[in-house]
């Protein structure tokens, strides 16, 4: 049954059907969804949906027609650059999500190497095994080889020495997570960034999930690990607004240490009868809705609002960890640096065998499932 019928239907009927369809989804308001949901609650949520629909139709590709989109984007990018301790040389773009931000950072590294290290013909990116699959996706799309490095099996932070050893003559980018998504722990960023910088290799921080939250923890004096532009050698950072920035999807930010680096993100094309294209992101036409909603939620919460959320959720995280400690048969795999962690149960296997169990399905098994799906 497709969506397109011969005759159109009345909007109230359609809305009723949408309601029915949504009935099969998990109830994201239940308070029992523990992943992939970032709800600022009540009024802030209502505001983001209003801001989103107010700008839904504006096409952020045409910022000459819709200068509002450009202005709001600049405000959001500047706010994140400040939170992540960038100076006024730091520039960036809003994107559709962490994956696009990461795709751009990887493209910047590839094209920076094409200009500055043309002897590299088989470029590689080096990342800990805990890094997000978006880097593998970016490498797949952009024709780079991925080299993964081990982590400490106690806290799941990258092994900085192994990372250093993996940097080679073909490496165009090193990656660290702040934090990694599964374990909530921050890699030893200063050591990794120093290793990359000694060899003139660009170094990206994946702060997609943690950038905003950790910045507030740092400002509130409850985090002492360095993870942002304050660390020398960090050349780009991705940070999602649609996670702990509390904007609706699709909103993320990618930041570059300099305009010179951002240059490599640009795509330019004037060789068709169509309009000339020059833009710094993957998407062309896109709704200004996510940009407006990001701008609005930052204005609404302010520093005080974000601090309140961080304080409450960090307290709740520690209370949960204490509770989990008392339950036999399950435990948290790590002492997390922010409000995220992974639980293991005896039945799934002991902590130190988890890494040996990778991968849970082979690449070919996964592919076959999808090729045959609708
Ligand atoms: C969510 C996330 C990403 C990718 O983000 P999408 O917004 O899902 O594309 C990358 N890295 C980390 C650590 C993440 O948590």
Could you characterize what this model shows?
This protein is an alpha/beta fold and 374 residues long. It folds into 2 domains: 52-297, Type I PLP-dependent aspartate aminotransferase-like (Major domain) (Aspartate Aminotransferase, domain 2, 3-Layer(aba) Sandwich); 303-373, no CATH class. The protein has 12 helices and 11 strands. It has helices at residues 11-22, 42-54, 67-83, 98-116, 133-142, 160-166, 189-198, 211-219, 259-262, 289-326, 351-354, 363-371, and strands at 91-95, 124-128, 145-149, 171-177, 202-206, 236-240, 252-256, 267-269, 277-279, 330-332, 343-345. Strands 1-7-6-5-4-2-3 form a 7-stranded mixed sheet, with helices on both faces. It has a two-stranded antiparallel ribbon with strand order 8-9. A two-stranded antiparallel ribbon has the order 10-11. Helix 2 (42-54) packs antiparallel against helix 10, helix 3 (67-83) runs parallel beside helix 10 and helix 4 crosses helix 5. The radius of gyration is 22 Å and the shape is globular. The model has no long low-confidence stretch (mean pLDDT 93). Bound molecules: pyridoxal-5'-phosphate. Pyridoxal-5'-phosphate is lined by residues 97-99, 132, 134, 177, 181, 206, 208-209, 240, 252. Pyridoxal-5'-phosphate (PLP) is lined by residues 97-99, 132, 134, 177, 181, 206, 208-209, 240, 252.
């Amino acid at each position: 049954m497709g969506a397109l019928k011969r005759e159109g239907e009345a909007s109230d009927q359609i809305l009723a059907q949408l309601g029915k369809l949504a009935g099969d989804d998990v109830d994201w308001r239940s308070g029992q969804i523990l992943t992939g949901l970032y709800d600022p609650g009540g009024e802030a949520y209502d505001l983001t949906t209003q801001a989103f629909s107010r700008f839904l139709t504006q096409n952020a590709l045409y910022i000459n027609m819709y200068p509002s989109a450009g202005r709001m984007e600049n405000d959001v990018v500047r706010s994140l650059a400040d939170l992540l301790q960038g100076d006024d040389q730091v520039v960036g773009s809003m994107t559709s999500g962490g994956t696009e931000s990461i795709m751009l950072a990887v493209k910047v590294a590839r094209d920076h190497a094409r200009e500055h290290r043309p002897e590299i013909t088989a470029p590689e990116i080096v990342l800990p095994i805990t890094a997000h699959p978006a880097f593998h996706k970016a490498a797949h799309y952009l024709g780079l080889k991925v080299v993964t490095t081990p982590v400490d099996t106690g806290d799941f932070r990258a092994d900085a020495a192994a990372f250093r050893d993996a940097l080679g003559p073909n490496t165009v980018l090193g990656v660290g997570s702040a934090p990694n998504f599964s374990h909530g722990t921050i890699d030893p960023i200063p050591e990794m960034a120093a290793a990359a910088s000694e060899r003139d290799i660009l170094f990206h921080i994946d702060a997609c999930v943690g950038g905003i939250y950790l910045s507030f923890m740092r400002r509130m004096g409850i985090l002492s690990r360095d993870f942002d532009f304050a660390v020398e050698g960090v050349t780009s950072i991705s940070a999602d607004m649609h996670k702990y920035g509390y904007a609706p999807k699709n909103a993320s930010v990618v930041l570059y240490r300099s305009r010179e680096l951002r240059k490599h993100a640009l795509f330019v094309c004037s060789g068709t009868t169509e309009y000339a294209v020059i833009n710094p992101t993957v998407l062309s036409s896109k709704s200004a809705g996510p940009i407006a909603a990001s701008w609005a939620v930052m204005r609404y919460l302010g520093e005080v609002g974000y601090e309140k959320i961080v304080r409450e959720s960090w307290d709740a995280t520690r209370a949960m960890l204490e509770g989990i400690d008392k339950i036999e048969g399950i435990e948290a795999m790590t002492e997390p640096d922010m409000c995220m962690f992974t639980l293991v149960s005896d039945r799934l296997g002991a902590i130190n065998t988890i890494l040996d169990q990778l991968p849970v399905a082979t690449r070919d098994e996964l592919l076959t499932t999808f090729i045959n799906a609708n």
